[in-house]
Design goal:
Low-confidence stretches: none
Strand content: under 5%
CATH topology: Beta-lactamase
Number of helices: 7
Mean pLDDT: 88
Distance between the termini: 16 Å
Shape: globular
CATH architecture: 3-Layer(aba) Sandwich
Number of strands: 0
């Protein structure tokens, strides 16, 4: 189900761009979070992570759910007081856009960007712009406990 959630989130990003909540896929993500988070080791490479990199799972930070040794593996989320800060603070280990790594933390950040820009929960945004228009009136969302629904 988490993989399906990532696909739905990516569709919602496309809708958010179409509706003007996000300007485009090449927008850097750091400005969405710098006000609320003192992002550790904020380097040029980290500031250059774009929405596109999160959509394609090609951000260069150490985030790989398929590698149990990766600092950003979701098995480490239960120990983190804030899932967003945890992901934003991951160290950079490779160039952005060059390597795929399955990163749930990046997908969570995309959902948070939609929430911040639309002022709707991700579920409400999804219902309003995706599910209700295609006739899906009942759905159930599971949101990580430390992320905003």
């Amino acid at each position: 189900m988490t993989s399906v959630g990532k696909s739905i989130t990516s569709a919602l990003v496309g809708i958010a761009i179409e509706k003007g909540y996000i300007s485009n896929k090449n927008e850097p993500i750091a400005p969405y979070f710098k006000k609320d988070y003192a992002i550790e080791k904020l380097s040029t490479e980290k500031e250059d992570i774009q929405i596109y990199h999160l959509l394609t799972m090609s951000a260069g930070w150490d985030c790989d759910d398929w590698n149990e040794n990766s600092l950003g593996n979701t098995m480490h989320f239960p120990d983190a007081p804030d899932d967003f800060a945890f992901t934003l603070d991951l160290p950079m280990i490779k160039p952005n856009g060059e390597y795929f790594s399955y990163c749930s933390g990046g997908a969570n950040l995309l959902g948070e960007i939609i929430r911040r820009q639309s002022k709707l929960s991700l579920q409400d945004f999804g219902d309003k712009y995706l599910f209700n228009p295609i006739g899906v009136s009942q759905n159930e969302w599971f949101v990580t406990p430390k992320s905003t629904p």
